[in-house]
Specification:
By secondary structure, this protein is α+β, with helices and mostly antiparallel strands. The chain has a single domain, classed as Orthogonal Bundle (Arc Repressor Mutant, subunit A), CATH 1.10.10. Helix content is 42%, strand content 17%. The strands form two sheets. A three-stranded antiparallel sheet has the order 3-5-4. A two-stranded antiparallel ribbon has the order 1-2. Strand 1 and strand 2 form a beta hairpin. The chain starts with 6 loop residues before the first strand and ends with a helix.
């Protein structure tokens, strides 16, 4: 525990517990960056959150389908497309959970068949 930084040595034989760092997962970091920025590109969110292009792209597509964000510029590329939250005042504090890929993909297919 001392090596990981959870405890510190106060004096020989006496230690103080300071706890673990609570780091956010990728989606939470992406969501937090979106809420802070207001208007953003995929590249900016990728840089701010430290997530890969693929993670950012998939999460943006999911949020667009759910109607949480919209493309306000018309550009779709990684650097150019400017996005914003549709309703920033009522946006949830916790990041919207993304469904597993297979379940999400099946849901998308069935909605296409119904049309």
């Amino acid at each position: 525990m001392k090596r990981s930084g959870e405890v510190i040595s106060v004096r020989p034989g006496l230690y103080r517990y300071i706890g673990k760092d609570k780091t956010l997962n990728k989606l939470a970091r992406i969501w937090r960056a979106m809420r802070i920025k207001g208007y953003f590109t995929r590249q900016e969110i990728g840089r701010l959150s430290g997530a890969s292009k693929t993670h950012v792209h998939k999460y943006f597509m999911y949020l667009e389908r759910k109607g949480i964000i919209e493309n306000s510029s018309g550009g779709r590329s990684y650097q150019v497309g400017i996005y914003c939250l549709i309703d920033p005042d009522n946006a949830p504090l916790e990041h919207p959970k993304i469904a597993k890929y297979k379940a999400q993909n099946n849901e998308h297919r069935t909605s296409k068949r119904a049309k």
